[in-house]
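sry for the spam today, last one i promise. C-alpha cells for design, 147 residues
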C-alpha cells in the first residue's frame, strides 16, 4: 500500500498532508491514489482510449506514460508496456492480498498507480504490462485535442 512514511523509498518531490490531498482529489481519486485502492475493471475512462498523448499523474501532473506504449490487454484497465521514462515511476514489492505483486507508484508524489506484471506473453517489446487505474491518470492529448 502507498505510504508517505515508507523509508525504503526516496522522498517524494511533492509532499502534501492527507488533508491537502483530500482537498485536491475527489474521494474516489484519493482512495486509489493515496490509499492504494483499485477501480472496478472495465469502468475507467482510459481503458480503451486510443487518443494520442501523454498520460500524467492525476495527483501531481508528472508525465508517466505515453500513448505509443499503450496496448489493449483486455484486462479491464489501461495497459502500457513501458513508462515514459525510466525514472517516471517507482516499483516496489506488494504482498497484500496474499500474493506477490509489484506496485507502481508515481516517482514524483508516490501516488499509487497500479501494478506491473511480467512474462504474460503479450506481443510487446518488454513483455511487461503496467496495469494502471484510469483514475490515477489524466490524458493530455497531443495537439491539445480532447479525448
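last one done:
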Amino acid at each position: 500500500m502507498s505510504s508517505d512514511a515508507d523509508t525504503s523509498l526516496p522522498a517524494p518531490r511533492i509532499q502534501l498532508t492527507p488533508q491537502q490531498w483530500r482537498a485536491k482529489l475527489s474521494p474516489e481519486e484519493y482512495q486509489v491514489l493515496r490509499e492504494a485502492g483499485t477501480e472496478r475493471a472495465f469502468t475507467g475512462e482510459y481503458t480503451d482510449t486510443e487518443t494520442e498523448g501523454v498520460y500524467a499523474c492525476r495527483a501531481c501532473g508528472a508525465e508517466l506514460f505515453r500513448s505509443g506504449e499503450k496496448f489493449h490487454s483486455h484486462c479491464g484497465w489501461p495497459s502500457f508496456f513501458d513508462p515514459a521514462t525510466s525514472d517516471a515511476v517507482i516499483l516496489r514489492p506488494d504482498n497484500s492480498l496474499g500474493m506477490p505483486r509489484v506496485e507502481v507508484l508515481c516517482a514524483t508524489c508516490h501516488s499509487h498507480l497500479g501494478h506491473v506484471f511480467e512474462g504474460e506473453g503479450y506481443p510487446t517489446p518488454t513483455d511487461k504490462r503496467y496495469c494502471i487505474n484510469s483514475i490515477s491518470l489524466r490524458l493530455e492529448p497531443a495537439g491539445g485535442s480532447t479525448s
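The helical segments are 18-24, 27-33. ok im logging off now
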